[in-house]
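Weekly structure sync - notes
Attendees: PM, LS, DV (DV joined late)
Agenda: review two folding runs queued last week.

Item 1: First target. Sequence and structure tokens pasted below for the record.
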Amino acid sequence: MLFSIVTTIVLQEMAARLGFVTQKGLGEAINSTFSKGVFRYLVFFLIISAILVGNGAYEAGNISGGVLGLQLTIGELKIWPLLIGIISFSLLFYGGYKVLERIFISLVILMSLCFFITVVIVKPDFVAVFKGFIPSDIASVNYLHVMGLIGTTVVPYNLFLHAATISKKWKLGAELKDIRVENTVSIIIGGLISMLIIITAVAAKNEVVEISSAKDLAIQLEPLFGVSAKLFMGIGLLAAGLSSTLTAPIAAAYVARGLFNWSDDEKDIRFRGVWMLIIVVGVFIAMIGIKPIKIIQFAQITNAILLPFIAMYLLYVSNSKKLLGDKINSTLINVLGVLVILITLLLSLMSLNRIFDFL
């Protein structure tokens, strides 16, 4: 998680720099960098494939997270993925999602506070917690779990979304350092919340050996909520799942719009067609009978394996004087960026090797 936080800060800084200076997204940068030739089509193919696979998988994971929430609060029904897909489609199509998104985010923040209080109640061994920041017994590491943690924190499609939206939020005249501070603070808070969730999960490990259902997830909040833990965990999962089902499709649409230089109109049929496709793929995967927990894990691992390749391109364009002029990356960011790419690439290869061994 510590590595994931640092990686997110480094990559989001580059994405924000690109969006702020050029007032364009990462897709537009790819379009202008590779303006012609065979290499252009190869890059386009790789990016589209990566985003389609990564966002489709992550959308299935988002929908499955919402399904877990509904299972905890209402009960199990096979139509939950379809219902969540319809809600997401309606919110994006009619444009009424921004108010609800704020409500969902508020609920997620409330759940984060609940995890913090739970950590205080369970009184974990903080010496052991801090020892956990130092890698040990490397031979026994489950690299798929490591990639899952990275993939749930450093989401490649967020880099495209961040670069595309930063130009709307921050106009020329603002300062890069202000954007950097905002990014760093929000990423650290998000990472700390993830750590709190891990700590409370470990505190509940004596009661459940393996997470296989929605009710197993709620056990870690029982020190705070007792028998009502399932309800509160369900509300949090539903809010997190629904809010996330809106971002993955929109991010994919931003990528396609930038690559193919479509109109900025979000009602453009091509723009809508992309996010509709991502929702359909997500609903389909979520409804074919795979356990939601497995879908979420697959989505996280897929995103983490794609990460080093997206990071390579981001590092490349962030050092393009043609695009950024004198606002290119600092030496420190470049060094950190190279280290991130090398480590994530190594972890990706180890994870793929573990997957092939499993097959």
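Item 2: Second target, run right after the first with the same settings.
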Amino acid sequence: MRICVFGAASPTIDKDYINKVEELGRLMAKRGHSLVFGGGGNGLMGAAARGIKENGGYILGVIPKFFREQDVEVIYKECDKLIEPDTMRERKQIMEDNADAFIVTPGGIGTFEEFFEILTSKQLCQHNKPIAIYNINGYYNDIESALKTAIDKNFIKETCLDLYKITDDVDALFEYIENPVENIRIIKELKDG
């Protein structure tokens, strides 16, 4: 299975996050999965790639050309294939098109946007790929709370909670990713409008 991992590019985050995502990458490779990711060499992107590479897994990196040209972030140098589109929008589309499932690890604005974009696409029945949030150290507790508040106030349908899994347990994360529930729905079950 090709798993797209979203996560931080920052080299300054706590080492505990790095260690857990490196282990996630190692486990992905041991389980026969390949990595699709944003091509960064630092932060949790680099951690996932190092873990995969350590156990011989395949890596597809996707990083916009301007990242190299403007030295935006370190590029992971051991990708089996590196695609360099022109824009961030193209980057996200290539990653989505090449993924069978998504794991969202802790990150910043870009990671939040990636999560909400794939969640919105799933809500609109444009894909039915598993989305798992790896909630290391409770990082995503506030986002989970915000989503539940939006449901309580009728901005989001409660059925949207079925579109992803949030967990800090790696075994539960892989169980969800590797054994997806066939959850074909119509848009009206997931979205008012």
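Discussion on item 2: DSSP finds eight helices and seven strands in the chain.
Action: LS to circulate a short write-up before next sync.
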